[in-house]
């Protein structure tokens, strides 16, 4: 298979927060990989902008170090790295002051795409937007990219939207949810809408329930104070898991067009029912043998923030009437594994005298690790023992199916940045989507705050609190095992 790399238009990309963790780990190495792949044209440039007082040369050294650390060794080509670094400049700017903006203005070129990546705390979005405008650096064709968290509740998200809307139209604003840039997540849409096989069955009549799991093994050690203000609901459910749920639950858009897709996602979010307290389980990991627990990591002995959450969610529309979506995510769990599992209903009439009586088809979409799809089908157990049935996987790993090409699949950030330059907003969240997601999330959080609910402890390396198991057992269902 030959991978097709279509170069994007020439651009000037300014990265505010260019010396920060995200820029070093994801944005700059990602741009280098796109350069290596031939997608970033010769005439494009990257300008780092941050508070530190650095020369161009010092910033290039920092970028070179980031590439050395975060790009696989077999993709580190000396000549390509030198050529890439040649395209990089730096401006020292404090977003809240006036210095540096004139220099930045002088660096911007006409006739190329202008993009501004706000890889800084959201509290600086307004300052940057304002000054880009004031100094005539952004024009009507410029694009801005903003990072999560996009607010911590509906009010703050509205305020952020309003601040950006003062100087930029919705068509210029790219709100990143990097989950949407993942290859497998986009494959969800391909699986549903490019195959006749699944879509006719994609409804309450044939689907028993859906499970969405985002399990991590890492703790919050080192960033506990930050995480303690957020928690799993804000950090994972309101954005990433909500997006996954939307892609599974949405109606087919009339076209694969940014607003058509986002209109359909928005309808799903608006159709989400409020969640009652008995359908929510929150957890906090306990201390392990050699490691502190959540309380030690957050440095807040009275913390009621959840490092784990499981929820039973209902989408209130014709397609999904009576089909629960079970969502769970947490830190310090047994394995790092993210997947969506769609469990189909039993056949309407059993013709086999099979003792197990358990004939369910499950479609599993693995997001990480080992991205791929797995369809569990029932077959006859081999041998002469009569007509006994067993469940076997039709298993497809994308790495196996795509061979060498899988290695060159851009990671989420690479793809999303190229989409910004192409002007394609399909994989970015629209302002109304983010607000609708907070409008659903807020009362849930307010509910447990008002009740003073405490999260339940769970052991590190387990699959979460006991009550989360009960959430499923009560409905006669069980969670899938969390494994890599
Ligand atoms: P960081 O603290 O490592 O870096 C912050 C950057 O902002 C630095 O370059 C710093 O110089 C710059 N900065 C700070 N104050 C400034 C000012 N007044 N004027 C100009 N520049 C200023 O943060 P980070 O981890 O890189 O995160 C950046 C943004 O991305 C945050 O909004 C964060 O929530 C978001 N984010 C980060 C990650 C991640 O993995 N690091 C993941 C998702 C989202």
Compute the gyration radius: what is it? 24 Å
Oligomer: single chain
Which regions contain 5 or more consecutive residues with pLDDT less than 50?
A: none
Alpha plus pi helix count = 16
The backbone outline, from C-alpha atoms, is: globular
Q: Give the distinct bound molecules.
A: nicotinamide-adenine-dinucleotide
Q: Roughly how many Å apart are the termini?
A: 28 Å
Average pLDDT? 93
Name the beta content range: 15-25%
The strand line-up of the biggest sheet is 14-13-12-11-7-10-9-8-15
Structure class: alpha/beta
Helix content estimate: 25-40%
Largest sheet: 9 strands, mixed
Number of DSSP strand runs: 15
Structural features:
single chain, 484 residues, alpha/beta, nine-stranded mixed β-sheet, six-stranded parallel β-sheet, 15 strands, 35% helix, 20% strand, binds nicotinamide-adenine-dinucleotide
Structure notes:
By secondary structure, this protein is α/β, with parallel strands linked by helices. It has 16 helices and 15 strands. It has a nine-stranded mixed sheet, sandwiched between helices. A hairpin with a 3-residue loop joins strand 12 and strand 13. Helix 1 crosses helix 2 and helix 6 packs antiparallel against helix 15. It is globular and about 80 Å long. It starts with 10 loop residues before the first strand and ends in an 11-residue tail after the last helix. Bound molecules: nicotinamide-adenine-dinucleotide.
């Amino acid at each position: 298979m030959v991978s097709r790399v279509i170069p994007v238009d020439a651009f000037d990309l300014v990265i505010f927060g260019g010396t920060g963790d995200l820029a070093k780990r994801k944005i700059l190495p990602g741009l280098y990989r796109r350069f290596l792949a031939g997608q970033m044209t010769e005439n494009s440039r990257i300008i780092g902008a941050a508070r530190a007082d650095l020369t161009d040369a010092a910033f290039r050294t920092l970028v070179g170090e980031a590439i050395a650390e975060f790009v696989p060794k077999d993709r580190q080509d000396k000549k390509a790295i030198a050529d890439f670094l040649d395209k990089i400049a730096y401006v020292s700017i404090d977003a809240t002051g006036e210095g540096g903006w004139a220099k930045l203005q002088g660096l911007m070129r006409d006739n190329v795409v202008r993009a501004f990546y706000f890889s800084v705390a959201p509290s600086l979005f307004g300052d940057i937007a304002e000054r880009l405008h004031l100094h005539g650096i952004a024009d009507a064709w410029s694009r801005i990219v903003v990072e999560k968290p996009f607010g911590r509740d509906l009010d703050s998200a509205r305020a952020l939207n309003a601040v950006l809307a003062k100087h930029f139209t919705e068509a210029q604003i790219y709100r990143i949810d990097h989950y949407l840039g993942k290859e497998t997540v986009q494959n969800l849409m391909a699986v549903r809408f490019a195959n006749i096989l699944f879509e006719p069955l994609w409804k309450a009549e044939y689907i028993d329930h859906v499970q969405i799991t985002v399990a991590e093994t890492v703790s919050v050690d080192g960033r506990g104070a930050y995480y303690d203000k957020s928690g799993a609901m804000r950090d994972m459910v309101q954005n990433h898991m909500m997006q996954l749920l939307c892609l599974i639950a949405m109606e087919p858009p009339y076209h694969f067009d940014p607003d058509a897709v986002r209109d359909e996602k928005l309808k799903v979010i608006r159709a989400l029912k409020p969640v009652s307290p008995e359908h929510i389980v929150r957890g906090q990991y306990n201390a392990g043998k050699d490691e502190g627990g959540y309380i030690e990591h957050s440095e807040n002995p009275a913390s009621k923030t959840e490092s784990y959450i499981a929820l039973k969610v209902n989408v209130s529309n014709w397609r999904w009437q009576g089909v629960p979506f079970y969502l769970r995510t947490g830190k310090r769990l047994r394995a790092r594994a993210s997947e969506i599992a769609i469990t189909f209903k039993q056949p309407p009439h059993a013709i086999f005298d099979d003792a197990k009586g358990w004939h369910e088809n499950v479609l599993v979409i693995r997001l990480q690790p080992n991205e791929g799809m797995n369809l569990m089908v029932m077959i006859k157990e081999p041998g002469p023992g009569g007509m006994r049935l067993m469940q076997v996987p039709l298993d497809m790993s994308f790495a196996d199916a795509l061979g060498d090409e899988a290695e060159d699949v851009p990671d989420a950030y690479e793809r999303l940045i190229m989409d910004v330059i192409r002007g394609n907003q399909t994989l970015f969240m629209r302002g109304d989507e983010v607000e609708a997601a907070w409008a659903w999330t807020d009362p849930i959080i307010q509910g447990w705050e008002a009740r003073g609910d405490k999260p339940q402890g769970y052991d590190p390396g387990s699959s979460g609190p006991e009550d989360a198991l009960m959430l499923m057992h009560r409905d006669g269902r069980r969670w899938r095992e969390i494994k890599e």
